[in-house]
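REQUEST ID: PR-0412
SUBMITTED BY: lab tech R.K.
PRIORITY: routine
TASK: structure prediction, single protein chain
INPUT:
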Amino acid sequence: MKVTLAPGPRIAVVGNPANRRVSLFREAARAAGQPPVRVVAWTDVLGGRARFRPGEYVRIDSPGEDAEVERLLRGVDDPARVEGTARWYGRFTEAAREVAAVAGAAGAVMVDDPEDLAVLFDKRRCHGVLRGAGVAVADSPTSGAGGPVVGGWADVRELQRAGRLGSRFFVKLAHGSSASGVLAVETAGGGRVQATTSVERDTGGRLFNSLRVRCYRTEREVAEVVDALAPDGLHIERWLPKATQGGRTADLRVVVVAGRATHAVVRTGTSPMTNLHLGGARGDLAAARCAVEAAGGSWAGMLGLAERAAARFPGSLRVGVDLLPATGWRRFAVGEVNAFGDLLPGLTGLPGGGAEGRDTYAAQIAAVRRRAAGVGAEAAAAGADQGVTTAPAGPRAAGRPGPVTTAVPGASAATGVTAEPAGAPAMTGVPA
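STATUS: complete
OUTPUT:
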C-alpha cells in the first residue's frame, strides 16, 4: 500500500509582521524547507478580520513592539507608558480566545492554548498553579486566586508587618512583562525604604518604562509609585538572594519546547533585574554548570525543574522559564514562566536537549513537524486498517489541545532542589 504524506505542515503565526520575532520564526521555517509561514497581523485579530485555513498550525506570538497594537490593547498613545496592563490583559486574552475559535471553525489546530496564556500573563495565578504543583517558587502572599488584593503601599506594609514578606521583596504588576512595573524593595529600621526599578515617574505622576534602572530612596517616593501601579493589580514576592557570576547577579532563562528544555542562557546584571534591555548581559553557561556541580547540585535537576514548570502549561508549544539560583548555586526556584520567552537570537540548543545546532525558533518548527507527522501517521494507520490509500487527514480542530509531547522526561524526580542552610529565605512548593 502506498501512503502519500504532505511535504510539511502549513503554519500561521499571529504576530506583528515587522516584529523580529516573526521574522526569525519565518527564517527558521524557510531554512527547514517548510512552506512559507503565513502571518496574521494582530491588527487584523483585534479588528475582527483574522482568518485561518484548514490544516494550518496556528502559533500565537507577542503583540508587543507595535504602537498601534499597544493602543488597541492598552488604550495608551505612548507605548512607554506603564499603566493600562489590566486593560491589556483583558483584551489580549479575549483576542487569543477569539483566535482559537476562528481557527477551530476553519479546521486549523492551535499550538498555543489561550487558557494557558491567561494564566501565564497573570503572575498571581501562575504562581499559584506552580506552587500547587509542588514547583519551587518564592514565597508570596498574593499567590493564587484566593490571595489578598493589594490596593497600594499601605497594604504592602501591612503584609510586611504580618511577617509575609521579610525586609526585602519584589512588587510586580500582575500582568506586566519585561520587568515593566517591577520594584525591588528594601526596608530597614527607622522607616528606611528604597526601591530599585526601571519605572520613571514624571511631574504629573504618570509612569513610564525606562532603559535606565534608578533607585527611589524615600518611603514617600516608593509609596507614590506603588499606589500608581496598584489599580492594574499587584503581585508581591519575597526577595530570594541570587548567586553571582563575575561579581554580577545571575539567573537563567531556560526555553522549554514541546516539554523538553532545549535552550538556556545565563543572564547577569548589576541590579536585581537581569533583563538584557536593562543593562544585563549574557553570562557563561559552562561556568554556571561547573558552579552547580561543584556545589553538589544537579544540572539535569535544574533543567528538570524548568520542565516541571512548563508541564503545567501543556497546551503551549514553548515557554521561557526564569530560574533563580540561590547563593552558592546549589538550590533553584522558578521566578517566572514566560509565554513569549523564546527571543534569544543566535543561541543554539543544549547538548542532549534535542535541539543541538538549532535556535529556539528552529526547535519549534521541528516540534510542529513532529506533531504533524504524528497526525499523518495516525491517519495513514487508519487508512491501512480499511485497506485504502490515504493522505494525512487535517489536524484536529482547534480548541484546548493536549500536550505536544505525552510526558516530560524525568519530571517526577528532577527538581534540582537541595537543602538550604538554616535561616535562608523560604522557597515554597518544594517537593518532599
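NOTES: The radius of gyration is 22 Å.
REVIEWED BY: pending
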